[in-house]
Amino acid sequence: MTEKLRRTLYNIYMAAFLFYLLVPLALMGGAAFNDSKLPSVYPWKGLTDRWFIDLWNDETMWYSFRNTILVALAVVLLAVPIGTAAAIVINSISGKVRSVLYGVMVAPVLAPGAVIGISTILFWNKLNVPTGLHLSVLGQVSYIAAFVMLMVLARLQSFDENLEEAALDLGASHGQVMRRILLPHLYPAIGAGAAIAFFQSIENFNITLFTRGTSQTLTVYVFSKVRAGITPSINALALLLILVTFSAAVIYEVRRRRAATIEAAREAEARRADEAGII
Question: How far apart, in Å, are the Cα atoms of 27 and each of 8, 20, 103?
């Protein structure tokens, strides 16, 4: 296969992939502006903003959205330290103990969400803990912490342990080594893990459905709307969530590239200074 043919096939594949990925989102977003009670773009009955107004006036949606954000923040506050601590422990041990601990942490990721939700409610009911959003948080943390652990564990592979030994030899305490050497190296992975935990919690449905009690989150709200008869207001909600996510991704990428440019400029300045010193 020639290089030209390989590149052509690659371009065709990428175009087909993007088409498959983006066209449904475009149709979904277009339905939010169609003046039709059915969530579709055909037949087109005119441009309207009524579905965004209905969404804005939907108190149940705002109540569910508030609960979703509160649960997601609580999940981040618990999953990030648990996952980070697990990654540090796993990275510091070896042998069968490491394999067992790693397997225990990763196992919830492989389990279906319904199984985790049912297990959570059965376990805490034995301890006379009632259902509610607090159980949703605990159930989600049981598997979301594993994603944080994997992110931090991957970052730890590039950490030079000699830095810790050198700091300890110079009189630093273990707490100082943790705060000033290890954690600064892990901050990018911890931040990425926190973002993953936040969005994993927002989109969670199975665990929340079983553990929420009488409370309601955004995913459960959408599920109830679909069962009762979906309206284009759900399309408006989905479009807003996509725009927020896309904007956050763009801001993150712009900041990352700006930081990389500044770091590259500093490294170049340091090299020029070294060369000037040598001369």
Answer: 28, 12, 42
Q: Measure the CA–CA gap between 219 and 65, rounded to whole angstroms.
A: 9
Domains of the chain: 58-231 (1.10.3720.10)
> What pLDDT digit, counting tens, does each position of 243-253 carry?
888 888 888 78
pLDDT digits (tens, 9 = 90+) for 10-67: 888 888 888 888 888 888 888 788 877 777 777 777 778 888 888 888 888 888 888 9
SS3 for 54-112 is HHHCCHHHHHHHHHHHHHHHHHHHHHHHHHHHHHHHHHHCCCHHHHHHHHHHHHHHHCC
Q: Report the C-alpha gap between 136 and 129 in whole angstroms.
A: 12
* Mean predicted lDDT score pLDDT of the chain: 82
Q: Does residue 31 contact residue 235 with C-beta atoms inside 8 Å?
A: yes
Give burial (CB, 10 Å; 0-12/13-18/19+) of 178. middle
Distance CA 188, CA 252 (A): 12
DSSP for 221-273, written as a single string = HHHHHHHHH--HHHHHHHHHHHHHHHHHHHHHHHHHHHHHHHHHHHHHHHHHH
